[in-house]
Structure formats: structure tokens, C-alpha cells
TrEMBL record, chain A:
Residues 96-323 form the ABC transmembrane type-1 domain. This is Phosphate transport system permease protein. The chain crosses the membrane at residues 37-60, 89-121, 133-157, 185-207, 257-279, 304-327. The lineage of its organism: Bacteria, Bacillati, Actinomycetota, Actinomycetes, Kitasatosporales. One of its GO terms (molecular function) is phosphate transmembrane transporter activity. SUPFAM superfamilies: MetI-like.
Automatic annotation (TrEMBL), chain B:
This is Phosphate transport system permease protein PstA. It is a multi-pass membrane protein. PANTHER family: PHOSPHATE TRANSPORT SYSTEM PERMEASE PROTEIN PSTA. The gene is pstA. It is found in: Cell membrane. Its main location: membrane. Residues 140-344 form the ABC transmembrane type-1 domain. Gene3D superfamilies: MetI-like. Part of the binding-protein-dependent transport system for phosphate; probably responsible for the translocation of the substrate across the membrane.
């Protein structure tokens, strides 16, 4: 930097050469041009990404504020989504409820199952079964969400009827599993949750598997040497070591479930009713709301959808940020063990 | 946790004069399993339960219970717990494999019915939604062009950012980039679509086009490329860089001719996986490309279609013929994604010896 300044601007040059020792041979201007270009290109790309993130937040907020300022309902507590009426009345209460409830149920189902599969692959299955299995799970993580959506709507929904009826009959007293009209199509938040769980199982499994694989052999062998059974090895040495890894894997899955659009849009029969009866075809999620309403939305309606998207963006930012902080903490932890 | 520790140290009640505690014969779980399945089927048939899933569940519960009781009686409580845990792990595996297998099986079985030369080489132009026939040619063109443009934009930016993070980055800027790249990985695709909608279409006033979709796909692709490339660059041993510097090679030449070539296999793998990931994205296309029934070869003008969008569109038409087409397109999309994944793995395997570590 200083060397080029000496070439371009004579006035400040006299003090500089004296400040730099003459023996410094590494500074070669001819080569540093390439270096500067490269630093500029790579640093510029990085800064571009930061600018992009800021732009996403900025532009979404800009359009969202425009929409929310004309909203004649409370944006956070209104149930319905009527952007075309005058005055427009819309709010995210139902969407926030649907998004959060479906994601939480999906997590509750997917996390234990994923940990089980990951343990099966790393600690239980024979090597000859384990590696192709890991491979298959990898491939399943890559299946596009629209395919899950298609399968969910045309295959899973009819097959959920039996389970719904059973839950209604034996667990209807919990209110949550009570079906208002028994036998209605299973296009409900509950089915969505199950489908989301199926979708995120491969993702959580993949990450957990990597973490389980990193558990030091010494820890496990120490437990075995004390006479621990296989389950005790898992509980005493594998799970404690992998705990933060499992948490961050789950957070990744949660982020995916929160933002999932197509699978929800195809399965859910949406409405602006906030229903605690999870088996009823009611409710909605942020992403599904955008996909379903976008087609016939006016310009103002699009702004309102952007406002909904902004809330989803903020939620996923928080979830992902938290996941990253947990991973960062783990890095220090495993660094001490390395 | 504390009681387990005491379990470990507590001497097992074992018969005098024998080193090993009493064990059940190795065929016990198999025998219990067969018994449980028979009993489950018997109870199921006896109670007149129609669903075979219920038979299976009864058998599973019987198996776990019998296994626990028997093991506990013969081998002790810790062994019994171990057996239950093993059963649960296997159950998790079966529980997850069933839907995932069903997904693949259904898609293949239903997709194969419509998959033929006509389906691949014709658009939906002039085909009513309720008629059989038509095809996905326009959607394939759309997917290839949109994904192609996104790749061309995202890969250089992603690779350069990774180079910055590994080779140059120190301090607050690099930390900020790392954090936000991580966060960006989790942006829902529909939010990326909304951003491009608000910026490119609503504010700058461009129309719906394949290119607008590519911009959203770029946003989704860049962080994936950065992450995978960064990991690969970090695997390059420092000795290689130092050897290069010692020969007087400047830093940028070292990066171009030493660091990147060493890790090129991994970088390409990451890029191909990223392509596979964005090729299946529907939401941005839905918001930005708008969909089309006819072939539009120009990604910069006018609405296009794409494979995922086509599936959604045909599903929404809601009749037998359109469902068939949706399954056909889903099968093509899965095959495309799988091929990309296999290519990526092939490259990763061929290039693996070059990298140290894993």
C-alpha cells in the first residue's frame, strides 16, 4: 500500500522510505499488483455477501412497512388475511401459530428418530449395512421438497386417515387430538408436521452421524473397559460428547421446517382459523401463506406477503444464529480435546 | 447418571466359580422376534384389526417387553436396558425407512407410467390440463437455464469469498462474513424469492423472467458454495503454501496454482451438490418466473417454467391426468438430483487422496 502511495503522491513520500528498512525484500510492486487484485476480488465477494444480507433485510422491511402502515388490523394479533378489502385487514397470528406448532411437532418426532438412525449407522449396524445406508440417507436429504409435497398430498394424506381416527377415538379427550368432524381429510397441521418430520430426518441424521463419528474412540473404549454395555457406552461417552452437535443439527432441521413452503402448500387445507384441534384441516404457515396467496395478489397484497416473509426471515435468522453460536461454543470444547 | 455410575461399580451377582455372568444364547432375540410376530398376528387377527400396521405395533411392543423381562431375569437389569435401547434404535431405523422407501417407491411406480420420449420432448402447449399427454420439455429447458445462470453467478462469488476467508481473512470482517454466510444458508427459499421480488420486480420494475428466478437461486446457492469450498481449502496442508512462498511465488499465484488445484475435486463436489440442491427449489420460481405452458428459450424475457414448478402446477390442476404428469416430472427431477449427487460423489472419491485428513 505504502509503496504505491510513494509512486502516486510525491509529498508524503520522503518520510516513508526512511520508515521502511531498506533490507525489506519481500515488497515487490510488480507482484503485489496481482495480490492486490486478488485481495480485492475475494474481499469484494465477501463484502458483497454482507451487502446482500443487509439488502434482503432492508428491502423486505421497506416493502413490509409500506404494507403494515395501511393494515387496519393489528399485524401481530389479527387472524384473517384480507389484503384486497378496503380497508385491508391482515395479521400473522394464525400463520405464526401454524408455523411454530408444526415445526415443534416435527422436531419432537424427527430428533429422537434421527438420533436413533445416526446411532444405528455409527454404533449398531454392521459396517456392510452401515455405509450404503449412510449413502441412502445422504441421497434422501437431497430429494426436493416439492417431491415430498406431492407424495405427502397424494399418498400420506389418505394414509393418515386411520391414524387420525384412532387418535380421535382414544386421545380425543386431550382436546388437541379431537377431530371436529371425524373422518375429514387429513389435510391438517398434524399431517404437515409428520411430513416435515419425514423431510428433516435425513438432514438431522446426516449431521448427527458426523458428530457421533467424531467421538474419540478412547472415550468409548474407556467405557467398554469398565464393563459398560453398548447402551451405557452411548449414554456415557457418545451422547455427552455429541450433545451440542445434536442441538445444532436439530436447529438446522428446525430452520428447514420453519421455512418449508411447498410441502405445506400442497398438503394443508388452509384457513384463517386458529384451531387447537391439530387434526382439523385449518390454519396456515408463513411460507404456505405466501405461496398460496401470491398468484392472485395485487401489488398491495404482495407487499403484505413480503411483510409476512420478513417475520419468517427474522425467525429463521434467530434460529440459525443460535445454532451457529452453539456450534462455535462446541469448537472451543472439542479443540481442548483434540 | 449417578445411579449408572454405581451400576458400573456394583459387583454383579454372578455364580461363584464362573468368570462370565450368565448369558442368554445368541439366538434369543430372533426367537423372541418370531414369537412376537406370531403372537401379534394372532392377537391382530383374533381382535379383527384390519390394519397390518397395528399388528406390527402389537408385535413390536410384545417383542420389547418379552426381551426386557427375559434378559432382566437371566442377565440383569443393565443388560436388559441395553437390549431395550438396541430394540429402540432398530425401531427408529425401521420407522424412518418405511416412509422414505414409500416416497421413492411411489414416485418411481407412478412416474414410470408417463415417462416416455413424448413426455420428455413436448411442452404443455395446446394440452388441456384435464387431458392426458403433454410433457415437460419447457420445464427442463427452464430448469437448465435458470440453474445454469445461477451457477455462473454464484460459483465465482462463492469461491472468491471462501478464498478470502481461508487465505486473507482475519479480524472482524472475516468473522462477520463467516457468521452471515452460515445464517444465509438457513434463509428459506421463499424469503430469497420475496427479496428478489421486492428489489428486482417491484422496485426496479423488471418483469417476471427466468433470470429473476436465477437471482433468487443465486442467493440460495452462494452460501452453500462458500461453506463447502472453505472446508476444502482448509484441508490443503500449510506446508504446500509455505513451500510455494519459499520459492518466492506471490500469494495470489500460490492460491491459483497450488491451493485451488489441490482442492479442486472437493470444490467441484460442493458446487455440484449445490446445483442439486437449488435445482429442486420451487418457491422462488413460483414467485419470480411465473410459469408457462409453452417453450420459452429466453431466460431474460417472459415467464418460463421449471421442473419443480411444473410439479406444483400439475398437482394444483387436481385431476388424474395432471397427477400422472406431476409424478412423471417428480421422477425426472429425482433422477436429475440423484445423478448430480452421484457425479459429486464420484469426483469426491477420485480426488480424495489429494486431500489430507478425512
Amino acid at each position: 500500500m505504502d509503496m504505491t502511495q510513494t509512486a502516486d503522491a510525491p509529498p508524503p513520500s520522503p518520510p516513508q522510505p526512511s520508515a521502511k528498512p531498506e533490507t525489506e525484500v519481500r515488497e515487490r510492486p510488480a507482484l503485489r499488483a496481482g495480490d492486490r487484485l486478488f485481495l480485492g476480488l475475494s474481499g469484494g465477494s465477501g463484502i458483497l455477501l454482507l451487502v446482500l444480507m443487509a439488502a434482503i433485510a432492508g428491502f423486505l422491511s421497506y416493502r413490509a412497512v409500506n404494507a403494515i402502515s395501511q393494515d387496519h388490523g393489528n399485524f401481530f394479533t389479527t387472524f384473517e388475511w384480507n389484503t384486497d378489502t378496503t380497508p385491508p385487514v391482515f395479521g400473522i397470528a394464525v400463520l405464526a401459530f401454524g408455523t411454530i406448532v408444526s415445526s415443534i411437532i416435527a422436531m419432537a418426532v424427527a430428533v429422537p428418530v434421527s438420533i436413533g438412525i445416526a446411532l444405528f449407522i455409527t454404533h449398531y449396524a454392521h459396517r456392510r449395512i452401515a455405509s450404503p445406508l449412510a449413502y441412502v440417507v445422504d441421497l434422501l436429504a437431497a430429494v426436493p421438497s416439492i417431491v415430498y409435497g406431492l407424495w405427502g398430498a397424494l399418498f400420506l394424506v389418505p394414509h393418515m386417515n386411520g391414524l387420525d381416527l384412532w387418535l380421535d377415538r382414544y386421545f380425543g379427550w386431550t382436546y388437541v387430538f379431537d377431530q371436529s368432524t371425524p373422518g375429514s381429510a387429513a389435510r391438517s397441521l398434524f399431517t404437515v408436521s409428520i411430513l416435515l418430520a419425514i423431510m428433516i430426518v435425513p438432514i438431522i441424521t446426516n449431521v448427527s452421524r458426523e458428530v457421533f463419528r467424531q467421538v474419540p474412540r478412547a472415550h468409548q473404549e474407556a467405557a467398554l473397559a469398565l464393563g459398560a454395555t453398548r447402551w451405557e457406552v452411548v449414554r456415557l461417552s457418545v451422547l455427552p460428547f455429541a450433545r451440542s452437535g445434536i442441538i445444532s443439527a436439530s436447529m438446522l432441521g428446525l430452520g428447514r421446517a420453519l421455512g418449508e413452503t411447498m410441502a405445506v402448500a400442497t398438503v394443508l387445507s388452509s384457513s384463517s382459523v386458529l384451531s387447537l384441534h391439530l387434526l382439523d384441516p385449518e390454519g396456515g404457515t408463513f411460507a404456505q401463506n405466501i405461496a398460496s396467496h401470491f398468484g392472485e395478489a395485487t401489488n398491495f397484497g404482495r407487499d403484505a406477503l413480503i411483510a409476512g416473509g420478513l417475520v419468517l426471515f427474522v425467525i429463521t435468522l434467530i434460529v440459525n444464529g443460535a445454532a451457529r453460536l452453539i456450534i462455535a461454543r462446541r469448537k472451543e470444547y472439542s479443540g481442548a480435546n483434540a | 447418571m449417578s445411579h449408572t455410575a454405581s451400576d458400573l461399580t456394583a459387583p454383579q451377582a454372578r455364580p461363584q466359580g464362573r468368570l462370565a455372568q450368565r448369558r442368554l444364547p445368541r439366538w434369543t432375540p430372533l426367537a423372541i422376534a418370531v414369537g412376537a410376530v406370531l403372537a401379534g398376528a394372532g392377537i391382530g387377527a383374533g381382535a379383527g384389526l384390519g390394519s397390518h400396521v397395528q399388528w406390527g405395533l402389537i408385535a413390536l411392543i410384545l417383542f420389547v417387553a418379552a426381551n426386557y423381562t427375559l434378559t432382566r431375569a437371566v442377565e440383569g437389569r443393565r443388560q436388559a436396558k441395553d437390549r431395550v435401547a438396541t430394540s429402540l434404535v432398530y425401531a427408529c431405523f425401521v420407522l424412518a425407512i418405511v416412509p422414505l422407501y414409500s416416497l421413492i417407491e411411489t414416485t418411481v411406480a407412478k412416474g414410470v407410467k408417463v415417462l416416455n420420449g413424448t413426455f420428455l420432448s413436448h411442452s404443455m402447449s395446446g394440452v388441456l390440463g384435464t387431458q392426458p399427454g403433454g410433457g415437460i420439455y419447457h420445464a427442463i429447458i427452464g430448469t437448465l437455464e435458470q440453474v445454469g445462470i445461477a451457477t455462473v453467478i454464484a460459483v465465482p462469488i462463492g469461491v472468491f469469498t471462501a478464498v478470502y476467508l481461508v487465505e486473507y481473512g482475519k479480524g472482524a470482517l472475516a468473522k462477520a462474513i463467516t457468521f452471515f454466510v452460515d445464517v444465509m444458508t438457513g434463509i428459506p427459499s421463499i424469503v430469497a424469492g420475496l427479496f428478489v421480488l421486492s428489489f428486482w420486480i417491484l422496485i426496479l420494475g423488471f418483469g417476471f423472467s427466468g433470470f429473476a428466478g436465477s437471482l433468487a437461486l443465486t442467493i440460495l446457492m452462494m452460501p452453500i458454495v462458500v461453506r463447502s469450498t472453505e472446508e476444502m481449502l482448509r484441508l490443503v496442508p500449510n506446508e504446500l503454501r509455505e513451500a510455494s512462498y519459499a520459492l518466492g511465488v506471490p500469494k495470489w499465484r500460490t492460491i491459483v496454482s497450488i491451493v485451488v488445484p489441490t482442492s479442486i475435486g472437493g470444490i467441484i463436489t460442493g458446487v455440484v451438490l449445490a446445483i442439486a440442491r437449488i435445482a429442486g427449489e420451487t418457491a422462488p420460481v413460483l414467485l419470480l418466473v411465473f410459469g408457462s405452458q409453452v417453450i420459452n428459450n429466453d431466460p431474460f424475457n417472459g415467464p418460463q417454467s421449471s421442473l419443480p414448478f411444473y410439479i406444483y402446477e400439475q398437482y394444483n390442476l387436481g385431476n388424474t391426468a395432471s397427477y400422472d404428469r406431476a409424478w412423471g416430472a417428480a421422477l425426472v427431477l429425482i433422477i436429475l438430483v440423484m445423478i448430480l449427487n452421484l457425479i459429486a460423489r464420484g469426483i469426491a472419491r477420485r480426488q480424495a487422496p489429494k486431500t489430507s485428513g478425512r
